[in-house]
């Protein structure tokens, strides 16, 4: 049983590591769009890796009776961590599908928000696995603030897009990427919300 | 424990009041687009207020063992009530971001459906807190009918849009707002569905 | 109680039958767009029929204490089966709303993936109701592979669309239908995921 505990916490840590690494890779990628095919391919690999971790956790959950934290919480954390990586992978693949070659300052801003959010998520997950529940809260607050920043970036980026871009197809591409990036900050917030309810119920 | 009960029911009532007030404000706002910035700002305030209520309920749920109705039901009601207000706030903010200045008859129709739906929701929530479960059903039926009306307005509005509007950027703006408004009627139906399952299990 | 068991399993079988029939009708419909109004109307009837089955299951769930499989699993299966039919019905209604008259090879490919997925779903549901749990797994694997094919069709179809179609309104229409069809393959995968967790917990 103690081994089982390890599997859940170890896999959650691995997911958090992968998400930080993938988001940093994403942030570098969007500042250098010279090879979007390689960029999209690498992001897809990160996403598959995260799918594997998700599968491991679900499989273990289905055969384990006693879990280190409530199974609904493990499930919710896993799903929202997976959503974060799916979100940035979907954006990376749009760079390829839409043949985007030019850098975009708003995408850079979103990527920066996401890098900072995923670092906060990683810190919070490691505190969870060390059972330092109360110390998690400040990271949740930081993630919520970053999600608000994501909302602000969306408002400004979409307003600017509609004010300046007259080519509708260009507008469609940018709008979708901005919205997907903002939604990814919402998935980060879902992680924070689950963590907050774990803290509340256990302290 | 009795005080705890009061907190859940009192906060659900406050959420319902806020949603009715916000939807009526929204309906007035879309018929007078002279100051979309002030309009979007006020809608954002309603949304923040509703977030506060959601936070109160989640916090209480996490520290309360005995709840007046099942915790999953309180959670589902809170989430879908919050979704309703998020939905109309997102529309209001698009009026600002997209610099929409002209009235739109379909948006007026959607707003009217939503005003009627939120009044039905409010009546149903007050019957729930008074434990008059059986009387809730007729309001659920009314909300379902209004959601069907929302579907019809979407079908007609989108058909008309694609038949008449030749400017693709104008089309993108209207299409998104219509779809978000229709989705908000779906969130109202989620409230009704949760209420119906509460009735069925308790009568 | 045994009768109750029958109601859940019988209704799930009826849902699976309807979904296969509706998806085959959809596949035929998208290859002959001579009467999109009749096509959309018939798909709407299938969707209403499926809503009835969903309602039956929810009503029974709310008044039954002992269910043949866990109630959360019945709920999850019902919801994702319903999502599959909602997904293709939404596409059919876009053919009508957008006055689409020309066949599209990618829509044909998606329809073919969905026909094969729903046949796999039907086989899996009938194995579930016969309690042949272990035999379900191969159908889940097939559904997952078909979902990957759906991802590939989306990537190619969207890339081709943005490379070739210069009319933004035409692009908006096709893009939405492709995305909705791909999402419907995701709903099929949700069915498979629920079935897999039922197998894991019961074998």
Automatic annotation (TrEMBL), chains A, B, C:
<comment type="similarity">
    <text>Belongs to the UPF0111 family.</text>
</comment>
<dbReference type="InterPro" id="IPR052912">
    <property type="entry name" value="UPF0111_domain"/>
</dbReference>
<dbReference type="Pfam" id="PF01865">
    <property type="entry name" value="PhoU_div"/>
</dbReference>
<protein>
    <submittedName>
        <fullName>DUF47 domain-containing protein</fullName>
    </submittedName>
</protein>
<dbReference type="InterPro" id="IPR018445">
    <property type="entry name" value="Put_Phosphate_transp_reg"/>
</dbReference>
<dbReference type="InterPro" id="IPR038078">
    <property type="entry name" value="PhoU-like_sf"/>
</dbReference>
